[in-house]
Every structure is written in structure tokens, then in C-alpha cells.
Amino acid sequence: MLAALTRRWQKGRLTDPRYAGLFDEHPDEIVSVDCETTSLDIAEAELLSIGAVKLRGNRILSSESLYLLVRPEKRPDAGNVSVHGLRPRDVGDGMAPADAVFQLLDFIGGRPLVGYYLEYDMAILNKYVKGLIGCALPNRRIEISGRYYDYKLRQQPDSHVDLRLQTLVDDLKVPALPRHDALNDAITAGMLYLALKRRGFG
């Protein structure tokens, strides 16, 4: 009930009718999404790259993926570059943030979104989305770490659950892709989602 009221309130704030479809959930596809940013502090973080890939049924549609480099207002500092490898010259020719976010909105439509610690990515994206279309992303969210937590507690009630990404990758036996690349991380989250789905936690 609360979710329905929130979506109705959000829809009332929508200022760009082109994106009314964000409120119409896709029946059989979801999108795995990941962002690389200039900081882990949401208040000051800017987008550097966006990765997204569609999933249909039990398949990752690698041919239907999105990878966008985004030009931030401030140059990434050395410590930040050491994490994601995106140097100032790499993102200097990137897209303007608004253009990248509009392209992402067109890509995801009303599909539910899946990710690993998705709340952070959504908070970053919504800093831009709200200013562009008047409301936050209304898409249903599927949090991988939460599904994995439920899966492990079903196996071992009251146990400590290690939610580090590498632990999930190793335990669920999905291929290890190079980390801190937005598209690779989105594909990894998609593989983890499907692995949990096969175990009854999709």
C-alpha cells in the first residue's frame, strides 16, 4: 500500500511525460545497473561511468548492454583513480551527465533494477534524475546483498553472513570479472541474481 502511494506521489511530480513509462513495470525483463563515481560520499560524488545490462528469464542479454563514460565537473583525484582506473583524460571526453542519465532512462524504461548495494547507485543517479524529470527513479529494486543474506540464513540460522562481493562470487560460483568497471560489475550482479534465483531466492 505504501509503495503504491509513493509511486503515485512520484508520478504526480513527473515533469517530463516522455518518461511516464518508468512507472510501467516490464513483464519479463530486469536491468542490472552499476555506477562508478568520484567519491563514496553521496553528497559530493559525481558520476564517472554507468553500466547496465538487461536480463530476460534466466539469461543475461550481453548484446543489450549499456556502458557510458561521464564527464564530471571536478577531475578525479589520484586516490579515486586507483580504485576504478578512470583517469581524467578517460572521462574528459565523456558524455555530459544529463545526456548519460537520459540515455540510461531510455534503456531501463519501467524494468525493475537489480544491483549489489543498489541503494548507493540509486542515490547517486537520483541526484541527477530528480532535476531532469522532477521525480526519483520509481523502478522496483532488487538488492543482491539482501537476497544473499536471506539465502545464507535459510542455510545457517543465526550465523554471521559475509556480504563482501568476492564472498558472494566465490560462494555462488559465478565467473570473476575484473572489478570496478561499471559494466563488468553490472554483469556480475546479474550473474549473482540468476545464481540466487536458481536457489529459490530470485
From TrEMBL:
| Extent of the signal sequence | none
Record keywords, A-Z: Exonuclease, Hydrolase, Nuclease
Q: Which Pfam families match?
A: RNase_T
The segment(s) forming the Exonuclease domain are 29-202
* Biological process (GO), any one: DNA metabolic process
> Single GO molecular-function term?
3'-5' exonuclease activity
Q: Which Gene3D superfamilies match?
A: Ribonuclease H-like superfamily/Ribonuclease H
Cellular component aspect of the GO annotation = cytosol
Q: Which InterPro entries match?
A: Ribonucl_H, RNaseH-like_sf, RNaseH_sf
Looking up PANTHER family in the UniProt record yields: BLR4117 PROTEIN, DNA POLYMERASE III SUBUNIT EPSILON
Protein name listed in UniProt: 3'-5' exonuclease
Source organism per entry reads Craterilacuibacter sinensis
